[in-house]
Amino acid sequence: MRRQDTSGRAYDLVLYGATGFAGALTAAYLAEHAPEGCRWALAGRNLTKLEQLRDRLAKLHPACAEVPLLRADSGDREALRALAADTRVVATTVGPYLLHGEPLVAACAAAGTDYVDLTGEPEFIDRMYLRHDATARTSGARLVHAGGFDSVPHDLGVLYTVGLLPEGVPLRIDGFVRSNATFSGGTLASALTVASRPVAMARAARERQRAEPRPAGRTIRAPFGPPLRSGETGTWGVPLPTLDPQIIARSAAALDRYGPDFRYRHYAGVRRLPIAVGGALGAGALCALAQVPPARRWLSGRLEPGDGPSPERRARSWFTVRFVASGGGKRLITEVSGGDPGYDETAKMLAESALSLAFDDLPETSGQVTTAVAMGEALTARLQQAGIVFRVVREQ
Predict the structure, then answer these.
(1) N or C: less crowded end of the chain, CB within 10 Å?
(2) Rounded to an integer, what distance in angstroms lies between the CA atom of residue 218 and that of residue 216?
(3) pLDDT tens-digit readout, 140-175
């Protein structure tokens, strides 16, 4: 791998999809927290909406009146190639990524431009690995998927926990997620896209498994664990079929610090058993409805892309992820926690991920990499400074 010299490019960071719900929150975070001298731009398909967003930002932060605006439709490959060639890092919120995401990934991989997104779509990530990982390894681009609540607190939370356990021994970690948050139209659209394609998703996973090298002499597992009662967290654990365990397993495969035999299981932590049962049944019903096109269209219409929870609702939202870990005779409970996970904290995670890629002294990596592998402790430190808590709950 020989990283391309991107220092002479026009921008340090471009935020693509800036006028969507998550994009506008990310833009507002960058307006307040981008370091002095950061050359950043807003990009999207509608120049009028970009101008309106910039005007709103400039009312609070007058310097934003000079932020450049770049027009590029997600289907315009030439415009996306030009965008990628002009910047060192691209952060994108444009989903569903299976429908709209690949041209930008391809452009960044070819240009040696670092890329980070908010996808929680396993099929998209697997297909991007198969199609663009090799190109990115040659160009030096870092392709980082799942740079929001999927899957930053889980991936970095496990990295934080592993760092507190003995080295060179088998490690066992269970994660328990709790939150009271709601979601936006864009998130609903992505979730329905994932749920409607189980066969295609499984096929992409198998193709990746055949193509991806496995760590020599080490065992990495992220099984779909059974429902259980966790005395350590005081919750019922309902298995969560989300992207997060896959991301954690890829971090573990890439980093020897996770030990010779690593296992992670992922759960929703629910206080009362009837709620746990009802939640599992509801998730199953949603997946079943997503297979039927008319039902899927009806569900999609409940929230339009760009719609999302109000500032007041987000202010009441919170999340915690507790990790119950053991290894080498040591037992440990750690926790990552913060405010509204889907939007306020996700905007923070995406923005800080992009800033970390642009400005931090990071390990020499390239190709499709996770947040733990690409940014690791540097991003953890940024998020701690930004108010997301990483802490030890109990140690023995």
Answers:
(1) C
(2) 6
(3) 999 999 999 999 999 999 999 999 999 999 999 999
